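Q: Could you write out the predicted structure for this multi-component system? I'm mainly interested in how the pieces pack against one another.
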Amino acid sequence: MSTVKMVEAPEGLEGSGFFATSLDKVIGLARSHSLWPLPFATSCCGIEFMATMGSHYDISRFGSERPSFSPRQADLLMVMGTIAKKMGPVVKQVYLQMAEPRWVIAVGACASSGGIFDTYSVLQGIDRIIPVDVYVPGCPPRPEQILDGLMQIREIAKNEPLRRRNSPEYKALLESYKIL
Amino acid sequence: MTDQELIIPTTANEALALNQPIVEDHEYTTLNLGPTHPATHGIFQNILQMDGDRIVSGEQTVGYIHRAFEKIAERRPFYQITTLTDRMNYCSSPINNFGWHLTVEKLLGINVPKRAQYIRVIMMELARISDHLICNSILGVDTGAYSGFLYVMQEREKIYEIYEEMCGARLTTNMGRFGGMERDLSPTAIAKIRDLVNNSLPRIMGEFEKMFNRNRIFMDRTVNVGGITGKRAMEYGFTGPNLRAAGIDYDVRVMEPYSSYEDFDFEIPVGHNGDTYDRFMVRNGEIHESMKIVRQALENLPEGPYYANEDHYYLPPKREVYRNMEALIYHFKIVMGEIDAPAGEVYQAVEGGNGEVGFYLVSDGGRAPFRLHFRRPSFIYYQAYPEMCKGLTISDAVAIMSSLNVIAGELDA
Amino acid sequence: MVSNQEVVEDIVAHFGEKLFNLEEPYGLLTVTTQRENILEVISYLNDHEKFRFTFLTDITGIHIPDNKGAEFGVIYHMHSWENNVRIRIKVFLSENDINIPSMTGIFAGANWMERETFDFYGIIFTGHPNLKRILNIDEMDYFPMRKEYPLEDATREDKIDALFGR
């Protein structure tokens, strides 16, 4: 008896020799179990991500075995740490280089809102330049919180309709960030 | 290409030996490394001039996480600045915290009880261990040995558990107060520290050192790579392990002992060539020395109060605030920043994970500093980086950067 | 081991009137000098056979708007490792004529410290090989650490006066 656990199949019609479900669900299932994160670690939260990635908390248990340092092959942009105004264009460029579907987590108070650094040089939240899916609070968040953020992204990836990225709402969202 | 014969070096040693002069009208390639290059964990940009695969010169751009600490510090009451110092060198935040507390205590003339000083020493040395563990294991990752990182991260988690026991936070600790500590060492914390410095960390360090110290691949990648002479390092303002690797035994803990460092018996590990391997070895040596200090401090931990009897500055314990009128008043006054500090000018240095962390405080007698400048060791020694990379390859440059342990938060303030 | 007293006696004998405001706040010897003499003072201390202040710990700036005629200050911390003694040297500059010789010729490490001071206060270090902004974006058109400029991010609208007192 193998100890490998299988995920449960999505809802569908089952009969002898066939199983029918919608494409959305199958692809969502596959995506949610192999999200390749792009760790964009700038400061303190990056050190907590190191712990999340390390042997103790082990992010690879959730299908993120491979941190993709190239934006082209990444599904999930994890922005961890303060983003200064000097860094803003770089974050945006990394986001633009990622292929659809792409999700974004803002890890920590600085990435979410600027945190305690309400100063002339700090961008007050990365949602001023790119759309964000999940915000993880904390200064810095504990690794469990970062993992919880990842679980939220998995939920989103699982339940996202395939045609969402073509919808007018999504295009309007990108347009509001001047991303075409 | 010119007709001058170019010898292509195969190892770093050969490249160093070559030391060819830069040829005019020779075409160099410009290579942009960073700010989000995967190999430079952290956001540093280097624009390198390459001749083939050798680095001829480079220029760094910094400031990608400039957060204006010094400007914020001018607007915050003294005790709120502790939160800024955490986020400067976030690999060893207790050292920065206590450095700032020592600065303010010097200004206010507070005498910290011996027990608090010893607890601070324990926490600072644990912080130094965690800082060096990260630096050395990441150097391992950059030279192709990922497993070393996985080994030592467990130990760092144990240090974080001790921090949690002391203050509840893992990374941005705030366990000190002006005049002492927020709480005493609990029996759990003592047991955890004992276990760490007597059992688990020496064992893991033994394995870690066995894996790296005489490893052929690791030595080929690091010996004679990115060397700097002691004199040059001094001109560049190096301090800390990077300076000691170059053979100069300057250590603030010994030179100007603070927080009872004079009570402990420890050595300063020193290198010879100031190369990547020496920096690695000096840091490993310091981990052992830090464990020695922690053991001594635990052994000789004095009895007595863990905070000074300074009602005006020491934030009263929470349970007192709820029950005692006076404590409530002082809590309110301190938290609202209503207590003025005397006017004066203080410079206090502590030995941080990367070198001399200095706090230059000018107080005009108000609730906030008039000017607070942080001497950040990474910022000062990172300027030597292009010089250290000259004649080497990109992969060496990456190893040099991680062995310098440039912390972005400290670099950019 | 050299005491502050010995250093004072020596530098006063050598420089005389060029150094003034000799103080010792919290045990750290502090002297003030003029812009014209700073290069001379620092190289004298650096080359001194006995004291050997061969390490430049720090360069930083300060802005004191009320100090008319000398609004800006540049502060040098030097350290003699052999004798374990520190010295702090201050130079004050007027707002209208804000420049001072660069130390990069003596200490290679002064390069970025001076660039940082320029970035924060706009103090011009004459003779600096590459004096441009280091931490802030190049497009920035003011010097943020000067007292008249606000700390907060001006582009932020969600923090309103009623709640945050801005």
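A: Regarding packing and overall arrangement: The beta strands of chain C are 19-23, 29-33, 55-63, 72-80, 85-93, 99-101, 124-126.
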